[in-house]
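Postdoc handover notes: sequence design on the structure in folder B. Input tokens:
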């Protein structure tokens, strides 16, 4: 995701990295978002100097945009990001 002067990469297995958008230079290497987090398949988004990433568990992680990795907050959900119905045999475990 391109935001400001940086290009951010959200890896589906729970890492975030940052590159300089003009030069491609690595600003910070892959940082684990949270050890127990499952995968990320939704596209990240950004607004007001913050980056947002939604995990398949339904948790939204909020990061400070810029040259330093800084997780600001985690918005926990009791519901997962997957639909409630079965999809290809997969059922989200966090749906009550």
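Designed sequence:
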């Amino acid at each position: 995701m391109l935001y400001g002067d940086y290009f951010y990469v959200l890896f589906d297995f729970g890492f975030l990295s940052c590159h300089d958008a003009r030069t491609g230079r690595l600003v910070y290497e892959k940082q684990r978002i949270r050890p127990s987090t499952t995968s990320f398949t939704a596209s990240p988004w950004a607004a007001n100097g913050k980056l947002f990433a939604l995990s398949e568990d339904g948790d939204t992680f909020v990061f400070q945009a810029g040259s330093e990795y800084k997780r600001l907050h985690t918005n926990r959900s009791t519901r997962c990001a997957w639909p409630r119905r079965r999809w290809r045999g997969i059922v989200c475990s966090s749906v009550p």
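Context for whoever picks this up: The chain has one domain: 2-75. Don't rerun without checking with the PI first.
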